[in-house]
Amino acid sequence: MKTIKVFAPATVANVGPGFDVLGLALDGIGDELEVTLNDSKEITIHPIAGFEDLPVDPKKNVVGVAIQALLDDLDATHGFDIKISKRVMPGSGLGSSASSSAAAAFAANELLGQPFSKKQLVKFAMEGERCASGKAHADNVTPAILGGFTIVRSYTPLDVVNVPFPDELFVVVVHPQIEVKTSDSKRILKKDVSLETAIGQWGNVAGLIAGLASSDYDLIGRSLEDYIVEPIRSVLIPGYDGAKSLALEHGALGCSISGSGPSIFALTKGKEVAEKIGERFKEYYSKLEIDHKVYVSAINAEGAKVI
Ligand code: HSE
Fold it and tell me: Which pLDDT tens digit goes with each residue over 103-121?
């Protein structure tokens, strides 16, 4: 029997124009798992403190599903005993299911002697996402495993890459405490976009990546516009327009919806600006009498790790 503890970070997905393809990892917030490899040949998940509604059946819990996907690929049977410390609130838009799925695939891989590279673990963690939201999107699990700022260049075949990012890039997130299910906020999206809209959107995706790679903060800011998803989803988020205006007035490079919401993120140059915006977010949501949490974070370059 061998036991390890692992951490995988919360993430911001889509990052403006990059629906289902762009993501970044946050520092300091994420799920932790204590995983023991044993001889039972079964995956056992203990009840999750504070989240008693989450299933412990390994076929229904993202952690069990991600580990089973890895075992199936190896054509192997092993027993795992898993204790989950859930820190990323489900339905927050901060990659809650991805954090657990990524940590699970990472932990199993460590305990089995690293048969897979970190990049190869993404496809197993994606099965956790399929279980949670009905769609195996990879934009949260990729940064949760690899860390940094990531692109899902292709789903078929899966091709994920890290993008360089400037040192002073900070993220401020406000999470108004209402739950938005990814499956619901995916359902309301339109299935088609016009060529004109698509041209605007891929211009922004390309501009954002160029801005990150060349540390051009103004270009990052100009490119953080989403013409396709934000206009539809923002109506589900109380106070969205006001929060975005506040962030931009106080120096954000750009501001958009984190994942499928309701969290809202802004990118800034430097921690000070991020903290100032965080304070404005707190005042704003307090006035609206909506419970909220604010996070200020650098980009976590490490991703999933043993702790
Ligand atoms: N790309 C996904 C979505 C992320 O926006 O639906 C969910 O966190």
Answer: 999 999 999 999 999 999 9
Annotated catalytic residue, options 129, 142, 150, 230: 129
* Residue 181 CA to ligand 1 centre (angstroms): 10
Q: Does domain 2-163+302-306 have CATH number 3.30.230.10?
A: yes
- Cα 78 to middle of ligand 1, angstroms: 32
**Fold that domain 169-298 belongs to in CATH:** Alpha-Beta Plaits (3.30.70)
How far the first Cα of the chain sits from its last, in Å, is: 18
Active site (annotated) includes residue 182: yes
Residue 35's DSSP bridge partners are 4, 82
CA of 116 to the centre of ligand 1 (A): 26
Distance CA 306, CA 303 (A): 10
Q: Which two tokens stand for residue 46?
A: 């203990």
pLDDT tens for 210-221 read 999 999 999 999
Counts for the chain of helices (H) and strands (E), in that order: 10, 11
Q: Is 77 a catalytic residue?
A: no
Supply the mean pLDDT for the chain: 96
What residue ranges do the domains of the chain occupy?
Answer: 2-163+302-306, 169-298
Stretch (H or E) spanning 26: strand 22-38
